[in-house]
Design goal:
The chain has about 300 residues and is α/β, with parallel strands linked by helices. The chain folds into 2 domains: about 230 residues, 3-Layer(aba) Sandwich (Rossmann fold); about 60 residues, Orthogonal Bundle (Histone, subunit A). It is built from 13 helices and 6 strands. Strands 3-2-4-1-5-6 form a 6-stranded parallel β-sheet, sandwiched between helices. β2, α2 and β3 form a beta-alpha-beta unit. The longest helix has 24 residues. The mean pLDDT is about 95.
Length: about 300
């Protein structure tokens, strides 16, 4: 029997975690997280990681399995996820994958793109430039060298910006020119479910989620990580803004408003990424669960 990976994608705060648990329970299977921010055990509230109750509702993998001190990238995740899927498919005909990190989702479903070897000194120089000049300088440099990547990658993530820039500089070609080449087939079939709704509703859900995170103790979570703020994993929405607040540069209300604004921008980039994928079946986030199950079963029977 052909094995099936059900991949659930969509913008932040749309309800992917809830749907993944319902589907995992229905198909009596396990969940792989492809949310690159939820890998880190020190970052729970600010990444909207599944709660202890949610984690107990279905077996999850790749949640809080790394420290922010670990060097963990999409290549390592692809290898780990494919190895795990090989084991899970011995026990289950279907496995659920959930996450809004498009690059990590693509790595599992399609495999990674090939990139040329780049001189390590280029990355070192870009990291120094990040420390001395700030992320905006690198973002503008990427915009000049590769506008397509500037418009599609997680532009607020310094690791992604530096990776794209080092390929542009080291190869003399746009980072985007190496993407989406034909790759080897996976030994499983993927059915991709996208959750979405009107943009105004998505933004409202994001705003409410940020308020909830603050109420749940996000400020204390960030405060406990202040001495690690230099790590790349923490240069992300929800953390970098509160570092500015804790250091007295911003008021709390302004920091919270910036988290909301940057989260909305992140959701917009997620939608831009996923909308380009022709194999995604989109459902409104309020869709009846049985309708989604019916679609999955219909696609499974096509296999």
């Amino acid at each position: 029997m052909t094995k099936t990976l059900i991949s659930i994608v969509g913008p932040t705060a749309i309800g992917k975690t809830s749907l993944s648990i319902k589907l995992a329970n229905y198909f009596n299977t396990e969940i792989i997280s492809a949310d690159s921010r939820q890998f880190y055990k020190e970052m729970s509230i600010g990444t909207a990681a599944p709660t202890p109750t949610e984690l107990a509702s279905a077996k999850h993998h790749f949640i809080h399995h790394k420290s922010i001190e670990n060097d963990y990238n999409v290549g390592a995740f692809e290898k780990d996820a494919i190895n795990l899927l090989e084991q899970l498919f011995k026990l289950h005909d279907t496995v659920i994958m959930v996450g809004g990190s498009g690059l990590y989702v693509d790595a599992v479903v399609n495999g990674l793109d090939f990139f040329p070897e780049i001189d390590a000194s280029i990355r070192e120089g870009l990291n120094k430039e990040l420390e001395t000049e700030g992320l905006a300088i690198l973002q503008n440099k990427l915009k000049t060298l590769d506008l397509e990547s500037f418009n599609t990658i997680a532009i607020d993530n310094p690791q992604r910006v530096i990776r794209a820039l080092e390929v542009c500089i080291g190869s003399g070609k746009p980072y985007s020119s190496f993407l989406n080449k034909e790759k080897g087939k996976r030994p499983f079939k993927t059915i991709t479910i996208g959750l979405t709704t009107d943009r105004e509703i998505i933004y409202d859900r994001i705003n409410h989620r940020v308020d909830f995170m603050i109420d749940e103790g996000l400020i204390n979570e960030v405060k406990n990580l202040t001495n690690k703020k230099h790590l790349n994993a923490l240069n992300t929405v929800g953390y970098k803004e509160l570092f500015n607040y804790l250091e007295g540069e911003w008021s709390l209300s302004f920091a919270v408003s910036e988290i909301k604004k940057n989260s909305r921008r992140f959701a917009k980039r997620q939608l831009t990424w996923f909308r380009k994928k022709e194999d995604i079946k989109w459902f409104d986030f309020k869709s009846n669960l049985q309708d989604i199950i019916n679609y999955i079963q219909y696609k499974t029977n096509e296999i």
